[in-house]
Amino acid sequence: MTKILFVCHGNICRSPMAEFVFKDMTKGREDVYIASAATSNEEIGNGVHYGTAGLLRKKGISTAGKTAVRMTRADYDEYDYIIGMDEWNIRNINRICGGDPDKKVYKLLDFTERGGDIADPWYTHDFETTYRDVLEGCEGLLSEINGRK
Fold first, then answer.
1. What is the CATH number of domain 2-148?
2. Which residues pair with residue 82 across a beta bridge?
3. Degrees, nearest 5: CA angle 21-95-9
4. Summary mean pLDDT of the chain
5. For residue 25, which phi and psi values (nearest 5 degrees)?
6. 44-80 residue pLDDT tens
7. How far is CA 87 from the centre of its chain?
8. Which of 15, 19, 121, 134 has the smallest CB count inside 10 Å?
9. pTM reported for the whole predicted model
């Protein structure tokens, strides 16, 4: 089984968007486990941001029941891929995990031709652009995982 943890600052916008988009893409597969978490404590226990939840609902993807959780050091041992949304997330993931000796930490757009950061819609209010970037990154990640099988 391949285990994937998507990570952003608060676990209410980008990482749950990636979690549920990827779950939708891999629906019916039992060889993939997908979750998301935050690098901060700010939103712990809060539900998915209404902008993310509403956009995904329009795409037929539910985020029901998801509440923000914080990433822990133990997650490094648990997951095969730990995927941040931007460079700041990567720095915080490495701080939480004490580095990345097993080369498990990536940015989501590392799985695309262009690379880069996924803008935080908390600040931009542009959930559509974030969704397009997340979708492109998830498609690349799925290709990566399928290629490893």
1. 3.40.50.2300
2. 5, 105
3. 35
4. 97
5. -65, -30
6. 999 999 999 999 999 999 999 999 999 999 999 999 9
7. 13
8. 121
9. 0.97
- Helix segments in the chain, DSSP class H: 14-25, 50-58, 73-78, 87-97, 121-124, 127-148
Q: Which residue, 85, 108, 107, 84, is CA-closest to 96?
A: 84
Q: What is the pLDDT of residues 128-139, one digit of tens each?
A: 999 999 999 999
- Mean of the pLDDT values across residues 105-128? 96
Give the catalytic positions in this structure: 8, 14, 120
CB 108 within 8 A of CB 82: no
Q: What is the Cα–Cα distance from 28 to 132, expressed in whole angstroms? A: 23
Domain range summary for the chain, segments of one domain joined by +: 2-148
Report the distance separating Cα 56 and Cα 145, nearest Å.
Answer: 23
pLDDT confidence of 149, banded at 50, 70, 90? low
Q: How big is the chain by its Cα radius of gyration, in Å? A: 14
